[in-house]
Design brief:
18% of the residues lie in helices and 26% in strands. The chain contains 2 helices and 5 strands, in the order E-E-H-H-E-E-E.
């Protein structure tokens, strides 16, 4: 497959899929984790060793990881499209505020990426 990240991928899921994605190879392997974000991050970190681990995807998974203090940086990818539905990344934290320090921002023709450090 031509997926940009040729690394093992741990997928947080409610259950294992009936069919696996096509394109697995020596570097790109999918493992489905049904035991929660804590286990998914732990397994990804064990595999990555000293390399960085990225959480890509659903807002719910990102929120869980932030709440469990498993995230030290976020990259917010802002695309000017209004879907009118969905979960906002920084809702569902109650009265706790998530403090971010912007490290860098990059503007592209179709989006803006903001990289920020998560502060406790």
């Amino acid at each position: 497959t031509h997926y940009e990240y040729q690394v093992p991928i741990y997928v947080l899921a409610a259950k294992h899929p009936l069919k696996m994605a096509k394109g697995e190879n020596k570097q790109l392997k999918f493992t489905f984790i049904t035991t929660g974000i804590d286990d998914a991050v732990a397994k990804a970190k064990a595999t990555a060793g000293r390399k960085n681990v990225m959480i890509i995807g659903l807002t719910d998974a990102a929120q869980q990881a932030i709440k469990l203090k498993k995230v030290d940086e976020v990259i917010l990818r802002i695309v000017p499209v209004n879907f009118e539905k969905g979960i906002k990344l920084f809702e569902n934290f109650g009265k706790k505020k998530i403090k971010l320090k912007i490290i860098e921002s990059t503007q592209y023709p179709t989006r803006i990426d903001i990289k920020a450090k998560v502060r406790s």
